[in-house]
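Long-time lurker. I teach an intro course on protein structure, and each term I like to show students one example going from raw sequence to a predicted 3D structure in token notation. This year I'd like something fresh instead of my usual example. Would anyone be willing to generate the tokens for the chain below so I can use it in lecture? Attribution to the forum is fine with me.
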Amino acid sequence: MFPELSGDERLAGFVLMLALMFGLFWWFNRRAKKWLEKHDRLEEPGPSDALGWLLGRLPQSSHPATLRYSEQEFQEIVSKVLDELPEEFDKEWKNVVVIVSTEWPTDVDKKRMGVPEGHVVFGTYSGLDRTKGLQSGGSSHVIVVYQPALELLCGSDNECLEREIRRTVLHELAHHLGMSHQRMKQIGL
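-- Reply from a regular --
Happy to contribute to a lecture. Here you go:
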């Protein structure tokens, strides 16, 4: 069915196939880049070096992280807020970790989440929400509370800080439960 090919013809065929694959790869990447640009999803390369990228360090936001509370003081406030949440939420916390970040969310993270420029992010949820069923059980569920953003909002007003941490944690827990932003706005989260 296939004709016998000499060594030179095989080599020429291999080079031709390689060139075709390279051309298709280049064409696909060019179209993908255009699609990302069109949908405003193309991330600008950050100022970090290759080692920083490899280690998972992302470029930091331009906001300085000057904090009023020490990391431990802020974590104690978060713990107090979590302890004061109604008991009916206790069963929803299975496999959910709440951590405090003393840094601002990166611009790359904000862009990935679709946060408009100039908006402040108080917390994030990562993981599969509970509406995904069994798939959700095996994934990690992490809520990050951003200390600099909450301090910017509340200053040294401890009551405001506790209120906003509670609101942020409940908002991110609602993401864990699969609630939409529209529904969260309806119930005040």
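Some talking points for your students: Strands lie at 96-101, 123-126, 141-146. Residues 45-62 have pLDDT under 50 and may be disordered.
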